[in-house]
Amino acid sequence: MPYWYYDKKDLQNTPSFRDGILNETENRYRKEGARFIIDTGSKMDLGYNTVATGVVYFHRFYMFHSFRTFPRYITACCCLFLAGKVEETPKKCKDIIKVAKSLLTEQKFNTFGDDPKEEVMTLERILLQTIKFDLQVEHPYGYLLKYAKCLKGEKVKLQKMVQMAWTFVNDSLCTTLCLQWEPEVIAVALMFLAGKLSKFEVVDWNGRTSKHNAWWDMFVEDISMDLLEDICHQVLDLYSPPTQLSGAESPPPQLGNKTVPKNEKPSVTPPTSASPVTVAKAVVTPVKNGSDAKLEPPKIDMRFTYPGYAPIPPYPSIYSAPPPAIPPPTRLPLPPGPPLSLYAEPPPSTRFPPVNVPPPNYFPPMPTRGPMPPRGPIPPGPPPPRPYYPPP
Amino acid sequence: MSGSSSSTSPPTLASINDVSALFQTAKKYEELNVIGTGAYGTVYKARDLHNGGQIVAMKKVKVALTEDGIPLSTLREIALLRQLEAYRHPNIVRLLDVCHGGQSLERESQLVLFLVFEHVEQDLESYLKRAPGPLSENRIRSMSYDILSGTDFLHSHRIVHRDLKPHNLLVTSSGRVKLADFGLAKTYDTDMKLTSVVVTLWYRPPEVLLGVSYNTAVDVWSCACVLAQLHTRTPLLPGSCDSEQLHCIFRLIGRPPRHEWPENVSIMADSFPDYPPQDLANVLPRIHPQALDLIKGMLVFDPAKRLTALDCLEHPYFTDEPLT
Ligand SMILES: Nc1ncnc2c1ncn2[C@@H]1O[C@H](COP(=O)(O)OP(=O)(O)O)[C@@H](O)[C@H]1O
Ligand SMILES: [Mg+2]
After folding, report:
1. First-to-last CA distance in chain B?
2. Which residues of chain B does A88 touch, with a Cβ-Cβ cutoff of 8 Å?
3. Is B275 on the interface with A (CB under 8 A)?
4. For residue range A17-48, what is the model confidence (pLDDT) as tens digits?
5. Domains located in chain B, CATH noted
6. CB B117 near ligand 1, within 6 Å
7. Is pTM beyond 0.90 here?
8. How far is C-alpha B313 from the chain's CA centre?
9. What residues does ATP bind to (chain B) (predicted)?
10. ipTM of the complex in this document
């Protein structure tokens, strides 16, 4: 059975890297591909589950292929197309291509070739082979809701925290976190982050025992503060403007020998202008994708203080439509006060269904986990359900 | 690792030189010989060239491609098989790999899928044929339990096997039984079936033969037929055609009372003689009394009144004495 988790060294030594693409450039390609899947999916009214599955396929695919061989936007389309079928929310290939065309510049759409549909069809088979037909993917969303149900506290604040964590999960799709950690671990970490930022402190929870130091001990064993912080940083890094050249628009076609692409233009700076807040310099050293294995963990204990954090800049414009449950993000100057107050406002959410009213049975019942990988052992879930259904 | 590419071609798929190479991951396996030909596919014994030459069983299934590529139902079924595999249930044959051989050369609209399973010594059919004499009571009990455990596992994941029979039950060298050949019903349905292959009816429950809707209870009926066969080493209900099979069944369990006869069936209850029920003990002489009671509870005409696989596992036949 394939195993889909990688350590940071593997994530640096990718096929794209070996093909002469800088890690930073690759990460930008991944981010752009993921955002494009989210955009296309949202525009076609596909649910968050389908979109997230498509993004996970995308990240897995590029653990075996180079961005130079397979241009990212057509791969992204194919991932969404396949995810649609697997999640039983199928969209016609030609309709996906139509939406893609409307979202991309002509130059980018040209990578789809003369017969885009045929290209996607061919790519579907390459994609399936690459992801080894391992089609069913779990996401943090369900765990997020499940864990939230156990937390005690003020309802409104809890709600806010969950909404914020949900948005972080959406955004985490633009990182390689799904190649590093199980969805349970990501759910815990991003709830932890949202709890900090929304100032919802979890003091009690259902099912608490004397063995628990924190609420997440109930769901994921041995999750260290270092790990939580590392995961949070990887998501928070999405909101900080790039500090250096991050690569070419597209990988140049390869000319024989493999060289690191030169003449890389600085990428377009994300639209930070929407925020009146100046971005404070982060004090915490983010644990970057393990360029140095012995890198010291961040010194600041995230459990207690937050002054060092850069405020979250305006959200990526793709997350344009706030859900009805939450007021639109204010663009008025933020109230004066310590920087902490910046975090009181939950980030605007996406078009994905708001979390406050998950429809019944929205998530399939949790099966008991198979054998867990060595890291982050997770206690088995409830026994598998035994409904005896007639076949459809 | 399959499919990793270091292509130097320009980025248009149509012009990627190694696309065909990407499709050839079936080349990871060296076909040795055919071990089974069914209505929908061929099973080969093969060598896994990437895993120290480990012997595997490779099932080739042809999938009809649609205008939108691989059918959703096939993808769903493979996803489910993969998901089940995570549980590594001891009575389910291990699914090691799934790959495809690209579009078949003869037919553009077909994709050849390869499902790679652990190779298990033999199926129950040949095991029973080769058995030098009656199986020991312990062996029968443990095999019965294995079959019902695997069935209950599938049912707990909303899968109906639909074709439980000795050919689809594999026996390991240590005598454990594993279920095979399930989960691709919809994939099969879209494909052309080989009409030349005779499908056995002997394990079919009455509701299937009558063509009414059915559910997981069909598998319990089939299990009962297999369990009985473990005792006698001959099929319990060897009918020769659909209607003959129903006669066979009613001769054993009696023609069901009219109020149990399902609605919307073209065949009338009256078209069968009023067979009285037979004592199963006469058909299965010298059988363990608890085993007899269990099988009786499974061979019930009304699917709703049949034991479930889970009920079976909790039957005193298994719980009175520990399994060895
Ligand atoms: N994993 C396996 N190990 C050994 N033999 C197998 C295995 N799987 C199938 N076979 C043999 O091949 C035959 C056909 O396989 P099956 O999966 O039942 O395909 P079909 O759909 O054609 O019936 C089985 O009856 C069995 O004898
Ligand atoms: Mg078979």
Report:
1. 40
2. 72, 76
3. no
4. 999 999 999 999 999 999 999 999 999 999 99
5. 28-118 (3.30.200.20), 122-319 (1.10.510.10)
6. yes
7. no
8. 19
9. 59
10. 0.85
